[in-house]
Design a protein that fits this description.
This protein is of the alpha/beta class and 476 residues long. 62% of the residues lie in helices and 8% in strands.
């Protein structure tokens, strides 16, 4: 019996989602680490409250695009937060490969090596795999970007109105999931409009504008400021000079890295955390002939994003990962060339594939260890504070989000927001001393830390092997 294609897709998404969910629970990781993930949870809770009661007071206090937390809020009527947000990341991750396979089929035809390639160097890419388990908007935005690219390509090939409308809608959805989607989709979007101008249809234009208006109205309805992207510190401090710098000092602290930005963005091609064979694939790209379509849909969007990222005063693997799907599309011809020409015999192919998979699994373990340890520390510290008597105020920098999500009822004073000149009693100090001294020197967190240590005594409550320490603040 022939299986319905839609059912086949749903079965694939369900199977991958279940496998990743069980894996995340098996290692005890709920997708939360660092401030950003907890902020998504907080805003999802605010959006759910808005959808349920109409309460809007907390909706304006959010800096990022709203669609990921909105999707989490809607799904939270079925699954609790933060699980709903993690499930969106997981299903989106699976969906990325569905569209990558369809794009490869459009560009190169049906090839038996494409699924193997996507499995080894896509699904098992250490940094990329890590993203699938995290409560972050990246995988949802990447899924929408790849879906938009596919339908743009399909429109170019078949000129069906459905693909034009879908591509436009997916472009807007991706943009309001992650603003940097605009850079990734800039060239494909121009290509879409150019092809539409040669196949103009009034009905298609009317339906597209109606769909776009509906999306923009819904986004405006949840109180988003459309000028928010222009206020982002990374954009405000963007400069060509950053290409050649490895140290930065701005609102997010003093940041110092080993390599200059121009070298860092090249990691997408050569770093084993992305692709263990990336350097080899990059070398073999010189042997590949590139037509106009592949240049406009793969190479130009990838290079434009990397040029933009190199100008920001930051080096973040998560931001760099955003274009890894494009890098996979770029690398596939190299993989196919090597696989067919140099791995000629079946035993060599089996040994090469097995060795690569084992190495990738080991690198996945390493890539997950850091964020999993931070996640465990956050949960442990929050549990300790919840169990304390007297409900002391908590002074902290970088932990306010986790404390709120894990149910602490204590008053939380964030050392990042303003300079303090008094301390509430009873109170505790939850601090990463290494980060305060290296990253936040001469800024509010460092100044507040110095004020507390100079004027009060600190009695250790938790001071173990982790970088985060909990102290009781006492009068001298």
């Amino acid at each position: 019996m022939k299986i319905n294609p839609i059912m086949r897709i749903l079965f694939y998404l369900f199977s991958v989602a279940c496998a990743l969910f069980l894996f995340s629970r098996g290692i005890g990781f709920n997708g939360l680490y660092g401030q950003d993930s907890y902020e998504y949870v907080r805003y999802s809770i605010a959006l759910k409250q808005f959808l349920t009661t109409g309460e809007v007071t907390k909706l304006n206090d959010f800096f990022w695009p709203p669609l990921y937390p909105l999707a989490g809020a809607l799904l939270s009527y079925i699954f609790p937060l933060p699980l709903s947000l993690q499930l969106i990341s997981i299903v989106s991750f699976a969906g990325i490969f569905l569209y990558l396979y369809r794009i490869l089929t459009l560009l190169y035809g049906t090839k038996r090596t494409s699924i193997l390639f996507l499995l080894i160097f896509g699904f098992l890419s250490p940094y990329f795999f890590r993203l699938s388990l995290c409560v972050m908007s990246d995988t949802m935005a990447m899924f929408l970007c790849m879906a938009s690219v596919f339908h743009t390509l399909n429109y170019y090939i078949r000129s069906k109105s459905k693909d034009f409308i879908l591509s436009l809608c997916l472009f807007l959805l991706a943009l309001f999931t992650r603003y940097s989607s605009f850079i990734v989709l800039f060239f494909p979007f121009l290509f879409l409009l150019k092809h539409f101008s040669g196949n103009f249809q009034v009905r298609t234009l009317a339906l597209s504008l109606a769909a776009a208006a509906l999306i923009l109205t819904a986004i405006h309805f949840i109180q988003i400021d459309f000028y928010t992207p222009l206020k982002h510190p990374l954009l405000l401090h963007w400069s060509f000079s950053n290409y050649f710098l490895s140290a930065f000092n701005y609102e997010d602290g003093q940041l110092s890295y080993r390599f200059i930005n121009a070298v860092f963005v090249a990691f997408i091609f050569i770093h084993p955390g992305f692709n263990i064979a990336g350097l080899l694939f990059t070398v073999f790209l010189l042997k590949i002939k590139w037509d106009k379509i592949k240049i406009q849909f793969i190479l130009l969007p990838l290079l434009l994003y990397l040029l933009f990222l190199a100008g920001t005063p930051n080096q973040n693997i998560r931001f760099l990962s955003f274009t890894y799907p494009l890098a996979l599309l770029l690398f596939y011809p190299s993989f196919e060339y090597i696989y067919e020409k140099y791995l000629s015999s079946v035993p060599i192919k089996i040994m090469s594939v097995t060795a690569t998979i084992v190495t990738q699994l080991f690198l996945i373990f390493l890539s997950l260890s850091t964020i999993r340890q931070l996640n465990l520390s956050e949960k442990m510290l929050a549990k300790k504070i919840v169990s304390m008597e007297g409900n002391p105020a908590i002074y902290t920098n970088g932990m306010s989000g986790s404390l709120q999500v894990y149910g602490t009822k204590n008053k939380i004073i964030d050392l990042w927001k303003m300079k303090i000149d008094t301390v509430i009693f009873p109170s505790m100090l939850l601090i990463n001393e290494k980060e305060i001294n290296e990253k936040w020197k001469e800024k509010f967190p460092y100044q507040n830390w110095k004020y507390i240590t100079s004027n009060f005594m600190l009695a250790p409550v938790i001071k173990d092997s982790s970088d985060w320490h909990l102290y009781e603040i006492k009068r001298k």
